[in-house]
Amino acid sequence: MSDQLIQEAPLVGIKSKLAAAFVKGPKDFGLVERAFMTHVTLRGDPDSPAFRGAVEEVLQLALPSGQTITASASGCSAVWMGPDEWLIQSVEETGPELERALRQALAGEHHAVVDVSSGYTVFELSGRRVREVLAKGCPLDLHPKVFPVGCSTQSHFFKAGITVLHIAEELYQLVVRRSFAEYACLMLLDAADEFIR
Amino acid sequence: MLQITCPWCGARAESEFSCGGEADIVRPLESETLSDEAWGDYVFMRKNTKGVHKEQWFHASGCRRWFNAERDTVTYQFIRTYPIGAGASGDSHGAD
Question: Could you tell me the superkingdom of the organism this chain comes from (chain A) (predicted)?
Fold first, then answer.
């Protein structure tokens, strides 16, 4: 029966609520769920050239060493999560393949690679009010001078842990835990209420 | 809001952190020969410093790393934060 299972996006329970909130279209603030993206957690010694070399060979990108995002030509990106931890993100559903390829390349090196795609979902926030909405529940300084395009970091939006990715001028991505997705989305809608009415 | 300087992420809001109590408590070697009193000291007894206190802090909503901090318990001022093991001469980050 497993071939009949249908993947459900984490926000499926509040789909109608989300649609109703944006009946007038995303003018000053927009929220779209990008479900089923690939997320792989990678850990290892950032000072080991062998580790970095193997990862960069597989992903075709340089691992960031600060709170930034690096991307490859093939649509893969690496997000800094901590001094020895990265989140590898891809729009394609290639989690198991990516995990296998990294494990093979890193054999013998001290490392950890886990496909965590099913544990997370991504919200894409856009519009000229996006920073104001985020700032209602997130203590980060989101001013473009402090947190420019290409930056990423972890913080919280009210009670939900989030990874904030600054993709473009008025475009942010939030990587949210699946179990917190509904809560985070409802809090975002509540925070954005004055801008989407 | 009070800001705490994470050694890896820089100055962040207090709400991203949690405190892990007194720092630099060393687990006694050969605990099987320890007296009940000494074991109790290790497990339960903590300093209640008025003034500069060394504490463990956790950047729970950030990079999820533990670090040490010197904090004044009277003024709440963070004097410095540093990675665990960096000790007195390690990288220090000034408080705000």
Answer: Bacteria
The verdict on A190 touching B (C-beta cutoff 8 Å) is no
Å from B3 to nearest chain A CA?
10
Mean pLDDT, contiguous 10-residue spans, chain A (197 residues): 81 93 84 95 96 95 94 92 96 92 95 96 96 97 96 97 96 97 97 91
Please state the rounded mean pLDDT for residues B55-61. 97
Check CB contact under 8 Å for B61 and A156.
yes
A156 vs B9, B15, B63: nearest CB: B15
| Interchain pair A155, B16: CB under 8 A | yes
A41 and B CB contact within 8 Å: no
Q: Show me where the domains of chain B are located.
A: 3-94
Global ipTM: 0.89
Please name the residue ranges forming H helices in chain B.
36-44
Tens digit of pLDDT for each residue in A56-69? Answer: 999 999 999 999 99
b/e map B49-77, b = 16+ CB within 10 Å? eeeebebbbbbbbbbebebbbbbeeeeee
Task: Specify the CATH class of B3-94 in words.
Answer: alpha beta
Q: Which domains does chain A have, with CATH numbers?
A: 10-35+119-196 (3.30.1360.120), 38-117 (3.30.70.1520)
